[in-house]
Amino acid sequence: MNTSYALDKSNAKLLGYLSAIGFYELPLTYIDDYPRLIGSITSEQVRAAFASHLNKDNLVTVIVGDREKVAPGIARLNMGAPAELTSI
Q1: Is residue 49 situated within a structural domain?
Q2: More confident residue, 49 or 12
Q3: Which pTM value belongs to this model?
């Protein structure tokens, strides 16, 4: 096990990783392999996964904040007119 990676984590987090390794039947080298595996993913692979699993027409963006303060930033996103929900 890469001790520098393990020492950066609390015992509870390490136990969580080990539990996931057992539950998902991952290799015992998973903790060491994870940074390399994540680093090898390309932006094109991320885009392809996104496109194959999510329908962009069904996505909703939720922005919470003072409308006067966030409105200029929202306008720069060119996402259309925002709807305002004032109560639930």
Answers
A1: yes
A2: 49
A3: 0.48
Dihedral Cα 18, 20, 23, 25, nearest 10 deg: -80
Q: Are 70 and 63 in contact (CB under 8 A)?
A: yes
Does 85 map to a domain?
no
| In a domain? residue 84 | no
Q: Is residue 18, in this structure, part of any structural domain at all?
A: yes
Alpha-carbon distance 67 to 74, whole Å?
9
Closest listed residue to residue 31, CA positions, set 17, 42, 19: 17
Domain span at 75: 1-79
Distance CA 32, CA 55 (A): 34
Task: Give the pLDDT score at 19.
Answer: 94
**C-alpha angle with apex 46: 45 to 51, nearest 5 degrees?**
100
Our count of domains for the chain comes to 1
